[in-house]
Amino acid sequence: MATTKLRDQVRSSFTQPSSGRNCWHSPHSSPSVRVQRFILSPQEPESLPSHSSQVIMSRKVVRTSKFRHVFGQAVKADQCYDDIRISQMTWDSNFCSVNPKFVAMIVDASGGGAFIVLPLSKTGRIDMSLPTVCGHTGPVLDIEFCPHNDNIIASGSEDCSVMIWEIPDGGLVSPLKDPVVKLDGHSKRVGILSWHPTAHNVLMSAGCDNVIILWNVARGEAVLRIDSVHTDLIYSACWNRNGSQILTSCKDKKLRLLDPRKGSVIDEKDKPHEGSRPVRAIFVSDGKILTTGFSRMSERQVALWDPKNFGEPLTLQELDTSSGVLLPFFDPDTGIVYLCGKGDSSIRYFEVTDEAPYVHYLSMYSSKESQKGMGYMPKRGLEVNKCEIARFYKLHERKCEPIVMTVPRKSDLFQEDLYPDTIGPEPSVEADDWFSGKNGEPILISLKDGFVATTKNKEFKVIKSLMATTSSSSSNRQSDYVDVQALQNEVKELREMVDELTKRVSELENK
Questions:
Q1: Span 72-119, pLDDT tens digits
Q2: What residues have CB less than 8 Å from 501, skipping those under 6 apart?
């Protein structure tokens, strides 16, 4: 009787048919849960297990990660930036850039393009009359702070120009119309900007003319022009960790790995995603490449590639069927990639590792309102005493809302495993040296003592650019960039011309 009763209990606990003899998978349980079952028959009553192991449930070991419980949380309402007219342009850029001193956002402007730059501490309602940076004659499409000088920001616009601006420490007190330097070289609108991660004063711009230009900002000149590689609109362009390579995605459905100083293609991948919608690509750990795109059925995808073998992706995962382009942000210190979809109301985050399936889903931050853009704070701008590993600045229709990503820890002590030495603001190579072929690895700093935006320059090493810091006019400031050698050559040519004219005049007089 006891054997019959036990057999009935075991059988009643599994109502689904078994696909094999020894295991059963519940459609309602996670794939990692595996339930062992024993098949009992009247001919095998003596093979019953003991009471302590009548039903064995063995849970597959969950992948251990210190970031499994990372959670995102929006700050309180009084710490947001309210009443801002965020730009209505449909361009797929971040529309926001942030560093430990300032947050900059592209805004609507009549008669040209503009963006605002606010000190991080200036939260709450933003006055409509707040001064803007308004030197462009067309809408601003992309902005990015210089990683080596928190007061310098670059902007690209529909007016085909790139402008470099210097923001005073306390923020703007009057509209800023004159850039430190204006960079002209594109024939169509400029939609992508990216500063070199290690070289001082090197800026990359990509325009709708399918051209990439590398600028020496300190001299105000275009040094390299990559114009014969891309046959269609460039969707994204980014540097690798030391800036020795450039990765681009293009409307011609090709992913290209470029040598920026030679302007040549190192390798390329055709159709990383089958769909026709925009593809974004970034470098992640160990030189691998992560792409976001769309399938042929317009499902959003994320894939990881090894440039040494571009044939097949290491992993390809389908996410959902939303239409917004996924903007990827990668943290090399933690190996976490954050995917923020334009028009979405969520931020997904994954951990990139060396173990299959390589890109491991962690969690998702969700909110009610959709995002029009997203700014990503550099690691040195985070609050390490609160175990903050990332901070986003989410743009709504009329405000900017910081979102903090935190690893829950009980201890208030510095968490060395969460904060390895990270990239600091000091460049490792000068522009002229980099253009001549020299590479420099990022100079790392420790966050053990923390970093706050009010830290003075003498306490936090910042290399000032060659840009003028006085309040002189734009023409005077730009004179600092004039190539002395070129001036000398021009003077020499003028002298020779004068000598020749003098000689001709004397010959005519003798006649």
A1: 999 999 999 999 999 988 888 999 999 999 999 999 987 788 999 999
A2: none
Q: Span 33-37, mean pLDDT? A: 33
Residue of 461 and 304 predicted with greater confidence: 304
CB proximity list for 17: less than 8 A, separation 6 or greater: none
Measured between alpha carbons, how far is 322 from 283 in angstroms, rounded to an integer?
24
46 neighbors 38 (Cβ within 8 angstroms): no
Q: Please report, for the chain, the start and end positions of each structural domain, with discontinuous segments joined by +.
A: 2-59, 74-314
Burial 51-89 (b: 16+ CB within 10 A, else e): eeeeeeeeeeeeeeeebeebebebeeeeebbeebebbeb
Summarize the confidence of residues 348-374 as an average pLDDT: 92
pLDDT of residue 501: 84
pLDDT for res 428: 95
Q: Which fold has domain 74-314?
A: Methylamine Dehydrogenase; Chain H (2.130.10)
- Confidence band for 65, pLDDT divided at 50, 70 and 90: confident
Minimal CA–CA distance to 352: which of 342, 366, 338?
338
Contact criterion met (CB below 8 Å) for 462 and 426 = yes
Instruction: Report DSSP state, residue 246.
Output: E
pTM of the model: 0.77
Which residues are 213's β-sheet partners?
A: 205, 225
SS3 28: coil
Q: Write the burial class of residue 25 (CB in 10 Å: 0-12 exposed, 13-18 middle, 19+ buried).
A: middle
The phi, psi pair for 88, rounded to 5°, reads -95, 5
Q: What is the largest CA-CA distance in the chain?
A: 140
